[in-house]
């Protein structure tokens, strides 16, 4: 009798310990365990996969592309975002040894994703590590132990497009319960079915077998969405990852960073052609296109998480040192933080940093760069950003010379309303002008890069 009471007390103590640990979480990439990363990436992936409806699949079959299909675009953009984040996290480290450590960590993340049977994110992670911006880093790969390289090669084989993804299909079919398919492979199958069978048989009979096959194929994917998620997610980490994966860089920007880290060596033998990257080509070119309001919402959530976990004395400031470590989870941590003299950083400054630093924001930001000037208002005026009153006798706020927008000093870096006066620049264009590209280039890379262009 006594024994069972003891047992239940121990259990409640353990539960208590767990809940208090739940509230405070480390948002530092270096502290995150591969398992935490794979769980949270899977949480995001599953959330995105579950949104795809039966009619989304139908539309895809008929139009054979993801344009005008926002849920699918979002799922593909997430995949591409993960792939880029993996590359940029490796490239953000200054020495080959440190880059190798990030590479090894992502291999461990890949192993956990494989155990979770999340093949879609696995493809994104391995695709990032296979990308030529990473595979060309010879000094980095020489620091990666052989057993890790062996796992990496096995994963690459598993996901290879060889014989129409034969290895993947076998592994996938052996999995039961919770699993996330490589969406691109299954979309390709739907198209093959649709195009490979006639709509009508002789005597103008509808080809029922074709409709039935398509229906079954889609239904199999839809049924996976009903599976219970075999993991718990911490929302602070979800916010961290959501913001980290929302970045969008061009291939050229990533290569530029790669060559800055390990310049082309003239002595080295010509590179043997590396295996083509495994990531399916159906996903290329789909970049995340969140609207400014969404970005603003992600940023606010992330800032809330930062303060919840790091503002220990609740005075509205966190230390510069801690913030810089958190910023390292974002490949845009090349953005220089305006140094505050006492080494403390306020909520406003962090929010402004994330808004400014998010490269999507800068690319969309073609419309946001207002021409603000400090202004004295002669009549009561409200802030167009937060709707608060502009207090004070003189110099109460800032006014945009081009569009007339008014706002507080602390709101002027957070504005997500377009500047309407300016000539429209097409943001849809996939090749940003070189001026834009250079404004996004990580600080310091330009100087190291000496204008060396990679040969296409």
UniProtKB/TrEMBL annotation:
SUPFAM superfamilies: Cysteine-rich domain (SSF57889), EF-hand (SSF47473), Ras GEF (SSF48366). PROSITE patterns: EF_HAND_1, EF_HAND_2, RASGEF_CAT, ZF_DAG_PE_1, ZF_DAG_PE_2. Coiled coil: none annotated. Its main location: membrane. The keyword Iron-sulfur does not apply. The keyword ATP-binding does not apply. It is found in: Cell membrane; Cytoplasm, Cytosol. It is a peripheral membrane protein. It holds the Pfam family RasGEF. GO terms for biological process: Ras protein signal transduction. This is RAS guanyl releasing protein 1. The lineage of its organism: Eukaryota, Metazoa, Chordata, Craniata, Vertebrata.
């Amino acid at each position: 009798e006594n024994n069972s009471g003891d047992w239940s007390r121990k259990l409640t103590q353990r539960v208590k310990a767990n809940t208090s640990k739940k509230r405070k979480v480390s948002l530092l990439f270096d502290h995150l365990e591969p398992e935490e990363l794979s769980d949270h990436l899977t949480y995001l992936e599953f959330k995105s996969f579950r949104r795809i409806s039966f009619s989304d699949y139908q539309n895809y079959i008929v139009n054979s592309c993801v344009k005008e299909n926002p849920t699918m675009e979002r799922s593909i953009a997430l995949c591409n975002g993960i792939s880029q984040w993996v590359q940029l996290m490796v490239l953000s480290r200054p020495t080959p040894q440190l880059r190798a450590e990030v590479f090894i960590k992502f291999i461990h993340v890949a192993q956990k994703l494989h155990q979770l049977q999340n093949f879609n994110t696995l493809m994104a992670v391995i695709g990032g590590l296979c990308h030529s911006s990473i595979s060309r880093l010879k000094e980095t790969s020489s620091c990666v132990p052989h057993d890790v390289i062996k796992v990496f090669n096995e994963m690459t084989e598993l996901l290879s497009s060889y014989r129409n993804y034969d290895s993947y299909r076998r592994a996938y079919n052996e999995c039961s319960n919770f699993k996330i398919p490589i969406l691109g492979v299954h979309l390709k199958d739907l198209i093959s079915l649709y195009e490979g069978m006639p709509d009508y048989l002789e005597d103008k009979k509808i080809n029922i077998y074709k409709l039935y096959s398509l229906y079954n194929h889609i239904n199999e994917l839809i049924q996976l969405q009903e599976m219970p998620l075999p993991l718990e997610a911490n929302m602070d980490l979800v916010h961290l990852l959501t913001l980290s994966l929302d970045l969008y860089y061009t291939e050229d920007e990533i290569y530029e960073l790669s060559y800055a880290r390990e310049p082309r060596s003239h002595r080295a033998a010509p590179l043997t052609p590396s295996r083509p990257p495994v990531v399916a080509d159906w996903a290329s070119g789909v970049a995340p296109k969140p609207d400014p309001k969404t970005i603003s919402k992600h940023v606010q959530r992330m800032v809330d998480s930062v303060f919840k976990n790091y503002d220990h004395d609740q005075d509205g400031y966190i230390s510069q040192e801690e913030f810089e470590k958190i910023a390292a989870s974002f490949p845009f941590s090349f953005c220089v933080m305006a140094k505050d003299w006492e080494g403390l950083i306020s909520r406003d400054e962090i929010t402004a940093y994330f808004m400014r630093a998010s490269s999507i924001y800068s690319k969309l930001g073609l419309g946001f760069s207002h021409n603000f000037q400090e202004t004295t208002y002669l009549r009561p005026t409200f802030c167009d950003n937060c709707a608060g009153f502009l207090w004070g006798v003189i110099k109460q706020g800032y006014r945009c010379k081009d569009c007339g927008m008014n706002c507080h000093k602390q709101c002027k870096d957070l504005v997500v309303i377009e500047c309407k006066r300016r000539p429209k620049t097409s943001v849809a264009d996939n090749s940003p002008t070189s001026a834009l590209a250079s404004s996004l280039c990580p600080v310091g890379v330009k100087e190291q890069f000496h204008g060396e262009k990679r040969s296409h």
